Amino acid sequence: MRPRTLHVLLLLCTVLVSGPACVGMKPVPLPPEAATSPWKYARVGDRVEYTFSSTLFDPYIPFDTQAFLEGKIREEPRGRTNTVEGRVAVEVVAVRPPWAWLAITFTNDWGRPHPHRALTQAHVLPMRMEESQPRPPVQLLGENTTEERFTAGGQTWDARRAVHDSRVSDGSLEVRVYASVPGPLYLTQGLLEASSEPAGMGVTVSSELKLRSFRQGTLEPGKVPTLEHPLGPGTWYDVVTEADREAPKLHRSCMNAEVGQLLTTTWTGAPGAAPPCGDFQGAASTSLGTALHGFIIQAATVFPWWPPVLGEFKPIRQETVTRGSHAVPVTVCAQQPGPMDAHGSTAQEVRYAVDPWGRELDGLSSLIRFTPLYDGTFHVPAQGPRRLDYSTALVDWGVWWKDAGN
């Protein structure tokens, strides 16, 4: 899968979107122990909101700067830059201990549903309110950590700033600011600000995320949402990789979430032999705040047109493919073979879902919903049929979270 890799959910009250509470939703005082175990006391309506911006820049797409300055051309070529900005909110929408359900919604700067294709629907996830097993504490990113007072969301916080600068090795400047005591920001582990500034080499995405508001909820149980549009936790998906003269390999990813951490396990082996999801011992862990930041970076790689192909890639046909129990209409896009030499040439083919929000994709993680369902590179000889060099294909997916996570 290439790395080119949320319609707003009906809220319990929309009178105030940035104040401490809505009319008729007076917060209930929390016990003192909530300070050390906030997820155990998650309440419907607990909410944090951030402003965000992310911009993709592709210097390899030719652009006549002089002609632009002279007014001879008025727009950059398609795909050279792509900016996505607005607001993102994380809110508790249902509580059924030991699980809380979260909805992630995106809006524009005026609070209306976001027009960007990847951000139009609410993304949901079940979050376990306690750890199923002890896990090591999450370390702050960066070799340089300082303490400061930071103002965001209408409040000044005691905060820790972590900086990691790898631009000298073609990396990026990464900055994270966290509240020393997360308090009402427990949903994102106290995240106040996150930014990424790349070195500027190759295709890059710069991004920024900053706390805008927060709100505390009530003891209402809320309505449990369905996992039609999951962020990822509670679901699984299978990807098969194939290479010339090698046996196919299946990679199963299982996702879960506990106390603000997104957990992922990956199994690799022969197709048909993957074990079911459920054991997350030794799982890779990412904080929800970090996942949000990564999601807005990914959104900048999804262009306004669909499928999001550029240059020599052209849609050539539509067809329906079967992936597990899912029949998915896809658009096939192909790159014509390059210049022929003594060894032949290469060609590439990708397939995207016709509608990335179609019902046939229900249960598929948002983290891969906008990537190609298939991506293959082929060797094209001077004579004879083409031969597969390498391919990745999404072959199945589903929801493992059933019966309260059991």
Report on this structure.
The chain starts with about 45 loop residues before the first strand and ends in a 7-residue tail after the last strand. A nine-stranded antiparallel β-sheet has the order 4-3-2-1-9-8-7-6-5, with helices on one face. Strands 13-12-11-10-18-17-16-15-14 form a nine-stranded antiparallel β-sheet. A hairpin with a 2-residue loop joins strand 14 and strand 15 (about 325-335). The longest helix has 12 residues, at about 290-300. It has two helices and 18 strands. It is globular. It has about 400 residues and is mainly beta. Residues about 1-25 have low confidence and may be disordered. It has two domains: about 30-215, YmcC-like fold (Beta Barrel), CATH 2.40.360; about 235-285 and about 300-400, no CATH class.
- Strand order in the sheet with the most strands: 4-3-2-1-9-8-7-6-5
Order of helical and strand elements? EHEEEEEEEEEEEEHEEEEE
Please report the distance between the alpha carbons of the first and last residues: 30 Å
Mean pLDDT, to the nearest integer, reads: 87
Query: What's the CATH architecture name of the largest domain?
Result: Beta Barrel
* Oligomeric state, counting identical vs distinct chains: single chain
Structural class call reads mainly beta
Annotation, overall tally of beta strands: 18
The number of domains is 2
Rg measurement, Å: 23 Å
